[in-house]
Design brief:
This protein is mainly alpha-helical. 79% of the residues lie in helices and 0% in strands. It has 16 helices and no strands. Helix 6 packs across helix 14. The relative contact order is 0.17.
């Protein structure tokens, strides 16, 4: 009987991985599109969870830092097959884009510089599109719009990762006061294991606090890499695009990659399906080879695992505390401001050198925002125009 149960569990894990891998191969269009693909596959086709559970899981993941679509996939895998199911769901969804970006980093030295410049320019359009879309959602009133603009201005005065974290914390405090009467209602039915969940959250905070200390006490480049990408995954609110300013301030000043390499990889990341956080694979590969790619990829996604598994049992408590939820109104507005600042530097300042560059970026933005063209098509067109202009 035990052997039969084990066989069924392995089959369930295989199905989780296979389904997630198929989604990882076809899920173009960013996190919002990913959530649409997930709903179609997991709710309507597979019927692993119902509509209400899916909506509640999405709501929880949107409150947490990190890549919301990956976190939803991790949560579904966990609800379906436990911790191994969460790992299988993450691996399946992440591997296709991670492998493509790893190969791009390996062969990027062979790519003509004009093609790379086209990728730099398309990054302007992609980030501008992200700022526009996020601003409509996260800054719908004057207070939040002001928080966003103030965050953008302050980010130039304190242009480092610590400054960005401070801006996010202060914005959260402001939001907790201004929007304390705004609340959400949702009930997510999950297995109850509060002690284990509390232990998982303790690991999350211990790593966040101890990794910088360990980095200072050692000279290992891989510990430094793990620390930088873990912190990025733990502190980025608002999705994959927002990782740009935090990672840029972490990896470029250390000389791991140049600004041009960083932005070329970011542009390429728009062309692949799956989570944008696999941009970490590119940076790790470009910096320290395949070992760096593995370390960076695990580090940037590890906080998502710890946060999703650690907060699921406490979701009922979170939703009842309006102050806690109100803080995220301010945090999300600050995120828009940080991304707006990143749109100017390094994205705009590195990519837009001539009127032709501006025209190409404007055309790419038109294709993305107005004509709703797939990012893959826009990236390919921009790279080709860059090559022949």
């Amino acid at each position: 009987m035990h052997s039969e149960n084990l066989t069924k569990y392995v089959q369930k894990l295989w199905e989780v991985w296979k389904t997630a891998a198929r989604l990882g191969l076809v899920s173009f269009g960013g996190p919002v599109a990913h959530l649409g693909y997930f709903r179609e596959e997991y709710v309507k086709r597979k019927q692993w969870i119902d509509e209400k559970t899916y909506a509640d899981l999405v709501a929880l993941c949107q409150l947490l830092p990190g890549p919301a679509s990956s976190q939803v996939g991790i949560g579904i895998g966990f609800l379906r097959a436990g911790m191994l199911g969460a790992i299988a769901a993450w691996l399946g969804f992440t591997l296709p884009s991670a492998l493509i970006l790893l190969l791009f980093a390996y062969f990027s030295a062979e790519v003509p510089i004009d093609w790379l410049h086209g990728l730099l320019v398309v990054a302007v359009a992609v980030v501008a599109h992200a700022v526009w879309g996020m601003a409509k959602v996260f800054t719908p009133d004057r207070s939040r719009a002001t928080i966003a603009i103030a965050s953008a201005i302050l980010s130039f005065w304190i242009p480092n990762a610590g400054g960005q974290v401070a801006i996010i914390i202060v914005a959260g405090m402001i939001g907790s006061f201004l929007y304390r009467h705004h609340s959400r209602t949702a009930v997510l039915s999950v297995p109850t294991f509060p002690r284990k969940a509390a232990g998982v959250l303790l690991i999350f905070f211990m790593l966040l606090g101890l990794l910088p200390i360990v980095d200072q006490l050692t000279s290992s480049p891989f510990i430094a890499l793990f620390d930088s990408f873990y912190r990025a995954g733990a502190l980025v609110f608002g999705g994959g695009h927002v990782v740009l300013p935090l990672l840029q301030s972490e990896v470029v000043p250390k000389g791991w990659v140049t600004d041009n390499q960083f932005l070329a990889g970011y542009g390429m990341a728009q062309a692949v399906p799956g989570p944008l956080f696999t941009f970490a694979t590119y940076v790790g590969m470009a910096s320290f080879g395949w070992k760096g790619a593995i370390v960076a990829t695990i580090a940037i996604f590890l906080p998502s695992f710890l946060l999703v598994i650690g907060t699921l049992p406490f979701w009922e408590w979170i939703r009842q505390h309006s102050r806690f939820q109100a803080a995220f109104h301010g945090i999300h507005a600050a995120v828009v401001g940080l991304l707006l600042a990143a749109l100017y530097h390094p994205v705009w300042t590195k990519a837009i050198q001539t009127p032709a560059d501006f025209c190409l970026a404007l055309a790419a933005f038109c294709l993305l925002a107005i004509w709703k063209c797939p990012p893959l098509v826009v990236v390919i067109i921009s790279a080709m125009i860059g090559a022949f202009s």
